[in-house]
Design goal:
The chain has a single domain (6-111, 157-186), classed as Rossmann fold (3-Layer(aba) Sandwich). The protein has helices at 19-32, 43-46, 52-68, 86-97, 116-123, 151-155, 173-186; strands spanning 6-10, 36-39, 71-75, 102-108, 126-128, 134-136, 159-164. It has a five-stranded parallel sheet, with helices on both faces. It has a two-stranded antiparallel sheet with strand order 5-6. It is 40% helix and 18% strand. By secondary structure, the chain is of the alpha/beta class.
């Protein structure tokens, strides 16, 4: 097995309120691990023209970087609701289809939010149905396996860390844990 050299970071980081500082901390952590970081959406592209041609270019460039990366680390922190940033879910799935190793983490504010069912209950309500299955506020069945994410997002990760923190959008502990796990993977 070849040693990991490049890590693709997926997640909502380019859009968080203190994006420049968060991205700089993550770049330093990856560099300290002796690795090159690749982003799906480099900061320069996020601020580019907001038209369809630019969106297609960003998409194609992200896929090229995913193919180039040795490993993906996905920040699956809940974003604008109970689930992760949709682009991160796509990137993780694409990397899985390419056979890339995936490490993931999720930052949450409380232990209750550490499980998907808990986040759904907190954000819109969950009830145990007469069939013994959990249902959301619309009556749709909740995929309840006691996991932090859906089965497909959780199972594709070689390691999936959940961090309870007061700063879910900027805490870098999960990235650090993924980098440590990656060193064991490379050993």
């Amino acid at each position: 097995m070849a040693r990991t050299q490049t890590v693709y970071l997926a997640g909502p980081d380019p859009w968080v309120p203190d994006a420049d500082a968060v991205l700089a901390r993550k770049r330093r952590l990856v560099a300290a691990a002796g690795l090159e970081v690749l982003y799906g959406r480099p900061a320069a592209e996020v601020g580019a023209e907001r038209d369809e041609a630019s969106a297609r270019r960003i998409y194609a460039d992200a896929l090229q970087r995913l193919r180039q990366a040795d490993v993906i680390i996905a920040n699956l922190t809940p974003w604008r609701g109970v689930g992760c940033e949709p682009g991160a879910a796509f990137e993780a799935g694409f990397a899985a289809a390419l056979g890339k190793p995936i490490f993931a983490y999720m930052n949450v504010r409380s232990d209750q939010e550490a499980e998907l069912l808990g986040r759904i209950d907190r954000h819109g309500g969950a009830q145990l149905g007469p069939d013994g299955r959990w249902r959301d506020f619309e009556g749709a069945e909740i995929e309840d396996f006691g996991l932090p994410e859906t089965v497909l997002l959780w199972a594709q990760a070689r390691r999936f860390f959940v961090i309870v923190t007061d700063e879910p959008l900027s805490d870098c502990s999960g990235l650090d844990l993924c980098l440590r796990a990656l060193r064991l993977y490379d050993a």
